[in-house]
Amino acid sequence: MKNYVVIPTYKEADNLKELLPLLTKYNVIIVDDNSLDGTENLCRKYKNVKLLVRKGKRGLASAVMDGIRSIKENDAKVVVADADFEHDYGRIKDVFNLLDKNDFVECVKVGKRLWNRGIISTTAKRLLYMLVPESTWLRDPMSGFFGFRTKSVSLNGVKPQGYKIMLEIFMNLKKGSRKTHLEYTYGYRKHGKSKLKPKVIMEFIEQMLRLNNYRVLVFLVIGIFGIFLNELLLYVFYLKLPLFISLVYAIVISTLVNFLMNHYITFKRRSNFIPSILKFSLVTFVAGLINLGVAFYLSFVIMYLIANLVGIVLSFIFKYLLSENFIWSTSKN
Ligand SMILES: Nc1nc2c(ncn2[C@@H]2O[C@H](COP(=O)(O)OP(=O)(O)O)[C@@H](O)[C@H]2O)c(=O)[nH]1
Ligand SMILES: [Mg+2]
Q: What is the pTM of this model?
Protein backbone atom coordinates (compact mmCIF):
# COMPACT_ATOMS: atom_id res chain seq x y z
CA MET A 1 0.00 0.00 0.00
CA LYS A 2 1.34 3.42 -0.93
CA ASN A 3 2.05 6.13 1.64
CA TYR A 4 1.32 9.82 1.16
CA VAL A 5 2.05 12.93 3.18
CA VAL A 6 -0.46 15.70 2.45
CA ILE A 7 0.53 19.24 3.43
CA PRO A 8 -1.67 22.29 2.90
CA THR A 9 0.31 25.48 2.46
CA TYR A 10 -0.31 29.15 2.19
CA LYS A 11 2.78 31.35 2.03
CA GLU A 12 5.04 28.76 3.60
CA ALA A 13 8.00 28.81 1.17
CA ASP A 14 10.47 29.60 3.97
CA ASN A 15 9.26 26.64 6.00
CA LEU A 16 9.08 24.33 2.98
CA LYS A 17 12.72 25.11 2.18
CA GLU A 18 13.66 23.39 5.43
CA LEU A 19 10.88 20.83 5.46
CA LEU A 20 11.06 19.20 2.03
CA PRO A 21 14.62 17.89 2.56
CA LEU A 22 13.29 16.01 5.61
CA LEU A 23 10.55 14.29 3.62
CA THR A 24 12.45 12.87 0.64
CA LYS A 25 11.50 9.31 1.62
CA TYR A 26 7.77 9.97 1.20
CA ASN A 27 5.31 10.75 -1.57
CA VAL A 28 4.50 14.32 -0.65
CA ILE A 29 1.45 16.21 -1.88
CA ILE A 30 1.65 19.95 -1.32
CA VAL A 31 -1.66 21.75 -1.81
CA ASP A 32 -0.85 25.41 -2.18
CA ASP A 33 -3.34 28.23 -2.58
CA ASN A 34 -1.35 30.19 -5.13
CA SER A 35 1.03 31.67 -2.57
CA LEU A 36 3.32 33.21 -5.24
CA ASP A 37 6.22 33.15 -2.79
CA GLY A 38 8.45 30.68 -4.57
CA THR A 39 6.61 27.56 -3.38
CA GLU A 40 6.18 26.34 -6.96
CA ASN A 41 9.86 26.54 -7.94
CA LEU A 42 10.88 24.96 -4.67
CA CYS A 43 8.54 21.98 -5.07
CA ARG A 44 9.70 21.38 -8.64
CA LYS A 45 13.16 20.54 -7.30
CA TYR A 46 11.87 17.40 -5.63
CA LYS A 47 10.87 14.34 -7.60
CA ASN A 48 8.86 12.95 -4.69
CA VAL A 49 6.76 16.09 -4.34
CA LYS A 50 3.52 16.57 -6.21
CA LEU A 51 2.32 20.16 -6.15
CA LEU A 52 -1.30 21.14 -6.57
CA VAL A 53 -1.77 24.87 -6.98
CA ARG A 54 -5.30 26.09 -6.43
CA LYS A 55 -6.14 29.41 -8.00
CA GLY A 56 -9.02 31.47 -6.69
CA LYS A 57 -9.68 29.05 -3.83
CA ARG A 58 -8.67 29.36 -0.18
CA GLY A 59 -9.07 27.22 2.89
CA LEU A 60 -7.09 24.69 4.85
CA ALA A 61 -9.71 21.93 5.04
CA SER A 62 -10.64 22.05 1.38
CA ALA A 63 -6.95 22.09 0.44
CA VAL A 64 -6.38 18.90 2.45
CA MET A 65 -9.42 17.29 0.83
CA ASP A 66 -8.24 18.22 -2.67
CA GLY A 67 -4.89 16.63 -1.82
CA ILE A 68 -6.56 13.46 -0.58
CA ARG A 69 -8.90 13.24 -3.57
CA SER A 70 -5.94 13.48 -5.94
CA ILE A 71 -4.75 10.07 -4.69
CA LYS A 72 -5.73 7.49 -7.27
CA GLU A 73 -5.16 4.21 -5.35
CA ASN A 74 -8.24 2.64 -3.95
CA ASP A 75 -6.55 2.22 -0.56
CA ALA A 76 -3.61 4.33 0.60
CA LYS A 77 -2.10 5.45 3.88
CA VAL A 78 -2.20 9.20 4.35
CA VAL A 79 -0.58 11.46 6.92
CA VAL A 80 -1.72 15.08 7.06
CA ALA A 81 0.59 17.68 8.62
CA ASP A 82 1.14 21.43 8.64
CA ALA A 83 4.20 22.98 7.01
CA ASP A 84 5.27 25.23 9.88
CA PHE A 85 7.20 22.81 12.15
CA GLU A 86 4.53 22.75 14.86
CA HIS A 87 4.13 19.06 14.06
CA ASP A 88 6.88 16.53 14.64
CA TYR A 89 7.92 15.27 11.21
CA GLY A 90 10.12 12.64 12.85
CA ARG A 91 6.92 10.85 13.91
CA ILE A 92 5.47 10.51 10.42
CA LYS A 93 7.11 7.11 10.03
CA ASP A 94 5.56 6.02 13.34
CA VAL A 95 2.12 7.08 12.11
CA PHE A 96 2.59 5.04 8.93
CA ASN A 97 3.69 2.05 11.04
CA LEU A 98 0.62 2.38 13.24
CA LEU A 99 -1.52 2.45 10.10
CA ASP A 100 -0.48 -1.16 9.41
CA LYS A 101 -2.82 -2.24 12.16
CA ASN A 102 -5.10 0.81 12.44
CA ASP A 103 -7.35 2.82 10.21
CA PHE A 104 -6.95 6.12 11.99
CA VAL A 105 -4.16 7.66 14.08
CA GLU A 106 -4.64 10.84 16.03
CA CYS A 107 -1.41 12.66 16.86
CA VAL A 108 -1.80 14.25 20.28
CA LYS A 109 0.40 17.17 21.16
CA VAL A 110 2.13 17.22 24.51
CA GLY A 111 4.47 19.84 25.95
CA LYS A 112 4.52 23.59 25.77
CA ARG A 113 1.65 25.68 24.44
CA LEU A 114 1.38 29.38 23.93
CA TRP A 115 -0.93 30.35 26.79
CA ASN A 116 -3.57 32.35 24.87
CA ARG A 117 -4.02 29.69 22.21
CA GLY A 118 -4.13 27.17 25.03
CA ILE A 119 -7.14 28.89 26.56
CA ILE A 120 -9.00 29.33 23.27
CA SER A 121 -8.48 25.76 22.20
CA THR A 122 -9.34 24.35 25.64
CA THR A 123 -12.66 26.22 25.65
CA ALA A 124 -13.41 25.15 22.09
CA LYS A 125 -12.54 21.57 22.97
CA ARG A 126 -14.85 21.49 26.03
CA LEU A 127 -17.69 22.94 23.99
CA LEU A 128 -17.13 20.44 21.20
CA TYR A 129 -17.09 17.49 23.62
CA MET A 130 -20.41 18.63 25.07
CA LEU A 131 -22.13 19.24 21.74
CA VAL A 132 -20.65 16.34 19.80
CA PRO A 133 -20.21 13.45 22.26
CA GLU A 134 -18.68 11.16 19.61
CA SER A 135 -15.71 13.52 19.45
CA THR A 136 -14.61 12.70 23.02
CA TRP A 137 -12.49 9.86 21.67
CA LEU A 138 -10.23 12.54 20.20
CA ARG A 139 -7.81 13.95 22.73
CA ASP A 140 -6.69 16.82 20.51
CA PRO A 141 -9.69 17.41 18.24
CA MET A 142 -8.43 20.75 16.88
CA SER A 143 -5.25 19.19 15.60
CA GLY A 144 -4.26 18.97 11.95
CA PHE A 145 -1.71 16.16 12.44
CA PHE A 146 -3.14 12.70 11.86
CA GLY A 147 -3.10 9.66 9.66
CA PHE A 148 -5.70 7.39 8.15
CA ARG A 149 -6.36 4.79 5.48
CA THR A 150 -8.38 6.22 2.65
CA LYS A 151 -10.56 3.11 2.42
CA SER A 152 -11.83 3.50 5.97
CA VAL A 153 -13.31 6.98 5.46
CA SER A 154 -16.53 7.89 3.65
CA LEU A 155 -14.91 10.79 1.85
CA ASN A 156 -18.21 11.89 0.32
CA GLY A 157 -19.53 12.77 3.78
CA VAL A 158 -16.57 15.03 4.55
CA LYS A 159 -17.48 18.72 4.43
CA PRO A 160 -14.26 20.66 3.91
CA GLN A 161 -15.25 23.69 5.90
CA GLY A 162 -12.87 25.84 7.91
CA TYR A 163 -9.87 24.49 9.73
CA LYS A 164 -10.78 21.35 11.56
CA ILE A 165 -10.17 18.69 8.98
CA MET A 166 -9.10 15.88 11.30
CA LEU A 167 -12.34 16.16 13.24
CA GLU A 168 -14.29 16.02 10.00
CA ILE A 169 -12.45 12.93 8.76
CA PHE A 170 -12.80 11.26 12.15
CA MET A 171 -16.56 11.83 12.11
CA ASN A 172 -16.74 10.11 8.72
CA LEU A 173 -14.76 7.00 9.67
CA LYS A 174 -16.60 3.86 8.68
CA LYS A 175 -18.06 1.66 11.39
CA GLY A 176 -15.61 -0.68 13.04
CA SER A 177 -12.52 1.37 12.14
CA ARG A 178 -9.54 0.72 14.38
CA LYS A 179 -8.23 3.89 16.00
CA THR A 180 -5.26 4.81 18.08
CA HIS A 181 -3.40 7.82 19.52
CA LEU A 182 0.22 8.85 19.17
CA GLU A 183 1.79 11.50 21.37
CA TYR A 184 4.26 13.97 19.92
CA THR A 185 6.08 17.01 21.22
CA TYR A 186 4.57 20.18 19.90
CA GLY A 187 6.96 22.57 18.19
CA TYR A 188 6.98 26.26 17.35
CA ARG A 189 6.31 27.74 13.93
CA LYS A 190 9.71 28.43 12.31
CA HIS A 191 8.90 31.14 9.77
CA GLY A 192 5.96 33.33 8.92
CA LYS A 193 2.71 33.82 10.78
CA SER A 194 -0.36 31.72 11.60
CA LYS A 195 -3.24 32.14 9.18
CA LEU A 196 -5.74 31.70 11.99
CA LYS A 197 -8.19 34.58 11.80
CA PRO A 198 -11.22 35.50 13.93
CA LYS A 199 -13.41 34.20 11.10
CA VAL A 200 -12.10 30.75 11.93
CA ILE A 201 -13.93 30.84 15.24
CA MET A 202 -17.28 31.41 13.49
CA GLU A 203 -16.48 28.62 11.05
CA PHE A 204 -15.69 26.33 13.93
CA ILE A 205 -19.00 27.12 15.63
CA GLU A 206 -20.80 26.38 12.36
CA GLN A 207 -18.91 23.12 11.98
CA MET A 208 -19.68 22.15 15.56
CA LEU A 209 -23.40 22.81 15.10
CA ARG A 210 -23.42 20.77 11.91
CA LEU A 211 -21.62 17.84 13.57
CA ASN A 212 -24.14 18.22 16.40
CA ASN A 213 -26.82 17.79 13.70
CA TYR A 214 -28.32 21.04 15.05
CA ARG A 215 -29.77 19.11 18.01
CA VAL A 216 -29.19 22.09 20.28
CA LEU A 217 -31.46 24.23 18.08
CA VAL A 218 -34.15 21.56 17.81
CA PHE A 219 -34.01 21.17 21.60
CA LEU A 220 -34.47 24.93 21.98
CA VAL A 221 -37.46 25.06 19.60
CA ILE A 222 -39.09 22.12 21.38
CA GLY A 223 -38.47 23.84 24.71
CA ILE A 224 -40.14 27.06 23.54
CA PHE A 225 -43.05 25.07 22.11
CA GLY A 226 -43.37 23.46 25.59
CA ILE A 227 -43.83 26.85 27.23
CA PHE A 228 -46.77 27.65 24.93
CA LEU A 229 -48.25 24.20 25.38
CA ASN A 230 -47.98 24.59 29.16
CA GLU A 231 -49.84 27.92 29.03
CA LEU A 232 -52.51 26.56 26.71
CA LEU A 233 -53.12 23.51 28.90
CA LEU A 234 -53.30 25.67 32.00
CA TYR A 235 -55.93 27.85 30.33
CA VAL A 236 -58.01 24.84 29.26
CA PHE A 237 -57.83 23.01 32.61
CA TYR A 238 -58.55 26.13 34.62
CA LEU A 239 -61.88 26.50 32.83
CA LYS A 240 -63.11 23.47 34.81
CA LEU A 241 -60.59 22.72 37.59
CA PRO A 242 -59.05 24.52 40.56
CA LEU A 243 -55.86 26.46 39.84
CA PHE A 244 -53.44 24.25 41.74
CA ILE A 245 -54.65 21.06 40.07
CA SER A 246 -54.63 22.79 36.68
CA LEU A 247 -51.03 23.90 37.23
CA VAL A 248 -49.95 20.39 38.15
CA TYR A 249 -51.64 18.89 35.09
CA ALA A 250 -50.24 21.54 32.75
CA ILE A 251 -46.70 21.09 34.06
CA VAL A 252 -46.77 17.31 34.08
CA ILE A 253 -48.29 16.96 30.62
CA SER A 254 -46.10 19.57 28.95
CA THR A 255 -43.01 18.04 30.55
CA LEU A 256 -44.01 14.62 29.29
CA VAL A 257 -44.61 15.97 25.79
CA ASN A 258 -41.24 17.66 25.99
CA PHE A 259 -39.63 14.31 26.84
CA LEU A 260 -41.39 12.49 24.02
CA MET A 261 -40.47 15.09 21.43
CA ASN A 262 -36.83 15.09 22.48
CA HIS A 263 -36.73 11.31 22.65
CA TYR A 264 -38.15 10.80 19.17
CA ILE A 265 -37.10 13.96 17.34
CA THR A 266 -34.00 15.55 18.88
CA PHE A 267 -32.17 12.43 20.02
CA LYS A 268 -33.86 9.90 17.72
CA ARG A 269 -34.12 7.19 20.39
CA ARG A 270 -30.38 7.22 20.97
CA SER A 271 -30.97 5.35 24.21
CA ASN A 272 -33.77 3.22 25.65
CA PHE A 273 -37.09 4.72 26.70
CA ILE A 274 -37.29 3.72 30.37
CA PRO A 275 -33.78 4.78 31.51
CA SER A 276 -34.13 7.96 29.47
CA ILE A 277 -37.41 8.98 31.05
CA LEU A 278 -36.12 8.25 34.55
CA LYS A 279 -32.98 10.29 34.01
CA PHE A 280 -35.04 13.00 32.31
CA SER A 281 -37.29 13.29 35.38
CA LEU A 282 -34.30 13.67 37.66
CA VAL A 283 -32.61 16.23 35.40
CA THR A 284 -35.85 18.20 34.98
CA PHE A 285 -36.23 18.35 38.75
CA VAL A 286 -32.67 19.59 39.28
CA ALA A 287 -33.05 22.07 36.39
CA GLY A 288 -36.14 23.43 38.13
CA LEU A 289 -34.14 23.87 41.34
CA ILE A 290 -31.41 25.68 39.43
CA ASN A 291 -33.99 27.99 37.87
CA LEU A 292 -35.55 28.62 41.28
CA GLY A 293 -32.27 29.12 43.14
CA VAL A 294 -30.68 31.39 40.55
CA ALA A 295 -33.84 33.48 40.11
CA PHE A 296 -34.36 33.84 43.85
CA TYR A 297 -30.80 34.85 44.71
CA LEU A 298 -30.33 37.12 41.71
CA SER A 299 -33.61 38.86 42.49
CA PHE A 300 -31.84 40.57 45.38
CA VAL A 301 -29.44 42.13 42.90
CA ILE A 302 -31.42 42.64 39.69
CA MET A 303 -35.07 42.95 38.69
CA TYR A 304 -36.89 39.70 39.44
CA LEU A 305 -38.09 39.14 35.84
CA ILE A 306 -34.55 39.42 34.55
CA ALA A 307 -33.30 37.26 37.41
CA ASN A 308 -35.82 34.60 36.41
CA LEU A 309 -34.74 34.85 32.77
CA VAL A 310 -31.13 34.20 33.78
CA GLY A 311 -32.36 31.22 35.80
CA ILE A 312 -34.30 29.91 32.81
CA VAL A 313 -31.33 30.25 30.47
CA LEU A 314 -28.95 28.54 32.91
CA SER A 315 -31.34 25.70 33.58
CA PHE A 316 -31.84 25.31 29.82
CA ILE A 317 -28.08 25.00 29.26
CA PHE A 318 -27.83 22.55 32.16
CA LYS A 319 -30.67 20.46 30.81
CA TYR A 320 -29.36 20.43 27.28
CA LEU A 321 -25.86 19.37 28.28
CA LEU A 322 -27.20 16.58 30.46
CA SER A 323 -29.59 15.50 27.72
CA GLU A 324 -26.68 15.15 25.34
CA ASN A 325 -24.28 13.49 27.77
CA PHE A 326 -26.43 11.71 30.34
CA ILE A 327 -30.11 11.22 29.49
CA TRP A 328 -29.52 10.24 25.87
CA SER A 329 -25.79 9.60 26.11
CA THR A 330 -24.24 7.72 23.19
CA SER A 331 -21.81 4.88 23.70
CA LYS A 332 -18.33 6.33 23.48
CA ASN A 333 -17.04 4.19 20.57
N1 LIG B 1 -3.74 25.59 1.06
C2 LIG B 1 -3.99 26.29 2.18
N3 LIG B 1 -3.25 26.07 3.29
C4 LIG B 1 -3.51 26.80 4.40
C5 LIG B 1 -4.52 27.79 4.45
N6 LIG B 1 -4.55 28.33 5.70
C7 LIG B 1 -3.57 27.71 6.37
N8 LIG B 1 -2.93 26.79 5.60
C9 LIG B 1 -1.82 25.89 5.96
O10 LIG B 1 -2.27 25.04 7.00
C11 LIG B 1 -1.24 24.84 7.95
C12 LIG B 1 -1.71 25.32 9.32
O13 LIG B 1 -1.98 26.70 9.27
P14 LIG B 1 -1.58 27.73 10.42
O15 LIG B 1 -1.83 29.08 9.90
O16 LIG B 1 -0.22 27.41 10.95
O17 LIG B 1 -2.69 27.38 11.51
P18 LIG B 1 -2.48 27.27 13.08
O19 LIG B 1 -1.38 26.30 13.29
O20 LIG B 1 -3.80 26.76 13.55
O21 LIG B 1 -2.15 28.64 13.53
C22 LIG B 1 -0.03 25.57 7.44
O23 LIG B 1 0.77 24.68 6.71
C24 LIG B 1 -0.65 26.63 6.54
O25 LIG B 1 0.21 27.06 5.52
C26 LIG B 1 -5.29 28.00 3.26
O27 LIG B 1 -6.19 28.83 3.19
N28 LIG B 1 -4.98 27.23 2.18
MG1 LIG C 1 0.55 26.50 12.61
A: 0.87
